[in-house]
C-alpha cells in the first residue's frame, strides 16, 4: 500500500470513530456495547483503558481486535504501544504528552496507523512531520469525558485542517444534536464516546451518527 492509498483508507475510517469508555458499562458488557456499535456502522474502533492492568488490557484487546476484524473495521489502541504490538492492532493513538509519533512509528513500522492529538496548528504540523497518519482535534464541544479539556474554536479546527495534508477527526462532546455544526470545517469525520456508548440504544445511535457524519463531510 502506497502513501496515497493509506491516507485514503485512513480518511474513510475516520468517518465515525468510536472510543470505548468503561464508565458507560451498565446492563451490557463492554464487549456487547462494542458489538452493538459495530452493528450500527462505526468505521474505526479505539480501545481506551486508562486504569486497567496490562495483563487484563491484553486479554481484552485480543477479544476486541478479533471482534472488530470480523466487521472489517480498523482497531486502534489508545496510548499503549506495547499492547498494540502484542495484539498486532491496526494502530495506536497517542496524545501530546505520550510517546511521540516518531517513536511510535519506529516501534510499529510503516504500515500501522498512528493518530496524534492536536490542539494547535503548530502541534498538528509537528505530528505530521513525525509521521502521524491522522490528527484527533478537540475538544470541539464541551465534554464530560475529559473535564480538563478546553474547547477549541471552529476557526482553529478549520486552520488545522487547512494546514496539514493528513486527515483530521473532530473529537469532544460530539452528539447527534451538534454534529452538523462541524459541516464545512474540513474534518474527515467525528470521534464519539458518550454519544455512542452512553446511549440507551447504541446501534440506533450509531446509525444516526453515521448518516449525519456522511452529510457533514459532504458539505
UniProtKB/TrEMBL annotation:
<dbReference type="Pfam" id="PF02581">
    <property type="entry name" value="TMP-TENI"/>
</dbReference>
<comment type="function">
    <text>Condenses 4-methyl-5-(beta-hydroxyethyl)thiazole monophosphate (THZ-P) and 2-methyl-4-amino-5-hydroxymethyl pyrimidine pyrophosphate (HMP-PP) to form thiamine monophosphate (TMP).</text>
</comment>
<feature type="binding site">
    <location>
        <begin position="193"/>
        <end position="194"/>
    </location>
    <ligand>
        <name>2-[(2R,5Z)-2-carboxy-4-methylthiazol-5(2H)-ylidene]ethyl phosphate</name>
    </ligand>
</feature>
<dbReference type="InterPro" id="IPR036206">
    <property type="entry name" value="ThiamineP_synth_sf"/>
</dbReference>
<feature type="binding site">
    <location>
        <begin position="46"/>
        <end position="50"/>
    </location>
    <ligand>
        <name>4-amino-2-methyl-5-(diphosphooxymethyl)pyrimidine</name>
    </ligand>
</feature>
<comment type="pathway">
    <text>Cofactor biosynthesis; thiamine diphosphate biosynthesis; thiamine phosphate from 4-amino-2-methyl-5-diphosphomethylpyrimidine and 4-methyl-5-(2-phosphoethyl)-thiazole: step 1/1.</text>
</comment>
<comment type="similarity">
    <text>Belongs to the thiamine-phosphate synthase family.</text>
</comment>
<feature type="domain" description="Thiamine phosphate synthase/TenI">
    <location>
        <begin position="16"/>
        <end position="196"/>
    </location>
</feature>
<dbReference type="InterPro" id="IPR013785">
    <property type="entry name" value="Aldolase_TIM"/>
</dbReference>
<feature type="binding site">
    <location>
        <position position="78"/>
    </location>
    <ligand>
        <name>4-amino-2-methyl-5-(diphosphooxymethyl)pyrimidine</name>
    </ligand>
</feature>
<protein>
    <recommendedName>
        <fullName>Thiamine-phosphate synthase</fullName>
        <ecNumber>2.5.1.3</ecNumber>
    </recommendedName>
</protein>
<keyword id="KW-0479">Metal-binding</keyword>
<feature type="binding site">
    <location>
        <position position="117"/>
    </location>
    <ligand>
        <name>4-amino-2-methyl-5-(diphosphooxymethyl)pyrimidine</name>
    </ligand>
</feature>
<dbReference type="InterPro" id="IPR022998">
    <property type="entry name" value="ThiamineP_synth_TenI"/>
</dbReference>
<keyword id="KW-0808">Transferase</keyword>
<feature type="binding site">
    <location>
        <begin position="143"/>
        <end position="145"/>
    </location>
    <ligand>
        <name>2-[(2R,5Z)-2-carboxy-4-methylthiazol-5(2H)-ylidene]ethyl phosphate</name>
    </ligand>
</feature>
<feature type="binding site">
    <location>
        <position position="98"/>
    </location>
    <ligand>
        <name>Mg(2+)</name>
    </ligand>
</feature>
<dbReference type="InterPro" id="IPR034291">
    <property type="entry name" value="TMP_synthase"/>
</dbReference>
<keyword id="KW-0784">Thiamine biosynthesis</keyword>
<keyword id="KW-0460">Magnesium</keyword>
<feature type="binding site">
    <location>
        <position position="79"/>
    </location>
    <ligand>
        <name>Mg(2+)</name>
    </ligand>
</feature>
<feature type="binding site">
    <location>
        <position position="173"/>
    </location>
    <ligand>
        <name>2-[(2R,5Z)-2-carboxy-4-methylthiazol-5(2H)-ylidene]ethyl phosphate</name>
    </ligand>
</feature>
<feature type="binding site">
    <location>
        <position position="146"/>
    </location>
    <ligand>
        <name>4-amino-2-methyl-5-(diphosphooxymethyl)pyrimidine</name>
    </ligand>
</feature>
Amino acid at each position: 500500500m502506497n502513501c496515497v492509498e493509506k491516507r485514503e483508507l485512513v480518511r474513510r475510517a475516520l468517518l465515525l470513530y468510536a472510543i470505548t469508555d468503561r464508565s458507560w458499562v451498565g446492563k451490557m458488557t463492554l464487549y456487547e456495547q462494542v458489538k452493538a456499535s459495530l452493528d450500527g456502522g462505526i468505521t474505526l474502533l479505539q480501545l481506551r483503558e486508562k486504569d486497567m492492568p496490562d495483563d487484563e488490557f491484553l486479554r481484552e484487546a485480543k477479544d476486541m481486535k478479533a471482534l472488530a476484524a470480523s466487521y472489517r473495521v480498523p482497531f486502534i489502541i489508545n496510548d499503549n504501544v506495547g499492547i498494540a504490538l502484542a495484539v498486532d492492532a491496526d494502530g495506536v493513538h497517542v496524545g501530546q504528552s505520550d510517546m511521540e509519533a516518531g517513536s511510535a512509528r519506529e516501534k510499529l513500522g510503516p504500515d500501522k496507523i498512528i493518530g496524534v492529538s492536536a490542539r494547535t496548528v503548530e502541534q498538528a504540523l509537528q505530528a505530521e512531520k513525525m509521521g502521524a497518519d491522522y490528527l484527533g482535534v478537540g475538544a470541539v464541544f464541551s465534554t464530560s469525558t475529559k473535564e480538563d479539556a478546553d474547547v477549541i474554536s471552529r476557526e482553529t479546527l478549520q486552520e488545522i485542517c487547512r494546514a496539514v495534508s493528513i486527515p483530521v477527526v473532530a473529537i469532544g462532546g460530539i452528539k447527534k444534536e451538534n454534529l452538523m455544526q462541524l459541516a464545512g470545517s474540513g474534518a474527515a469525520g467525528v470521534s464519539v464516546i458518550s454519544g455512542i456508548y452512553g446511549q440507551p440504544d447504541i446501534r440506533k445511535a450509531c446509525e444516526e451518527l453515521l448518516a449525519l457524519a456522511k452529510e457533514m463531510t459532504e458539505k
